[in-house]
Amino acid sequence: MNLNFSEFSANKRYHLITQTLIPRPIAWTLTSSDNGILNLAPFSYFTAVSSDPALIMISVGLKPNGDKKDTLVNVLKNKKMIIHIASEQDAQIVTQTAATLAYGESEVDASQLKTTDFESFSLPRLTQCDIAYACDLYEIKELGDVGQTLIFLEVKHLYISESVANIDEKKRIKVHSDKINPLARLGSGEYAAITAPFNLQRPK
After folding, report:
1. What global pTM score does this model have?
2. CB neighbour burial string for 72-85, b if at least 16 within 10 angstroms, e if fewer
C-alpha cells in the first residue's frame, strides 16, 4: 500500500501513524494545579530533542470537548513537570490515568499512587518508577488547526533508581533497560515491553 496522506482526515492519519511509528516511549507526566492538586497523564508523542540544553518534548492535543488538557494548563501556569518512565507492570494504571477527569481531580489520588519528594525540585515523583525527569518549561509551540501543542522541557534533575544502574569499567553510569522493563506504546490499545536487549558494534 502506498498511502497519500492528503486523502485522509487528521483522525485517520493519527490512526496510521500510531500503528506504524512503533514502539514509542511513554512520558508519564506529573504536574500540579495552583492549589496543589496533582495531575498524572501519559503521552506517547514524546522524544528527546537535544543535550545542550537538555531538552525533551511531549506533544499534547485537546480534550474530547475541545478544552486544553490539564497537563498543558498546569505547565503553562507553574512551568514545572515531572516525566516518569513507566514499566510493563504499570501498564494498567498508565491506561487508567489517560482517562479524562474534571480539572482539579487527581489521577494520583484516584489510582492510589504514592509519591515522594524529588530532591531539589518543587514537584514530587512517583515512588514506583525507576526513572524520573524533573523539568522546567522551556518553550511552547502551537501546531496546525486542531490545537496540537508541543511542550519543550528542560531537564534539571534526573532520578535513577540504584536498582537499575551501576558504574561501569569506564566510570560511567550504566542503566540496564531490562531491569527497568520500560512500557512502550504501539497502535490502538496495544503496548509492548523490552524482552531481550542486545548490543551491536557501532561502525568506527
Report:
1. 0.92
2. bbbbeebebbbbbb
- pLDDT attached to residue 62: 87
Q: Give the pLDDT score at 117.
A: 96
| Ranges assigned E (strand) in the chain | 24-25, 27-32, 38-43, 46-51, 54-60, 80-85, 115-117, 124-126, 131-143, 148-160, 165-167, 173-175, 183-185, 191-193
Contact 32, 38 (CB under 8 A): yes
Instruction: Give the start-to-end residue ranges of the domains of the chain.
Output: 21-190
Low-confidence ranges of the chain (pLDDT < 70): none
Residue found under cell 495531575 = 39
Q: Would you state the pLDDT for residue 152?
A: 98
**Hey, what's the torsion of the CAs at 5, 189, 37, 136, to 10 degrees?**
-50
Q: Tell which CATH architecture fits domain 21-190.
A: Roll (2.30)
Tell me the sheet residues that pair with 131: 85, 160
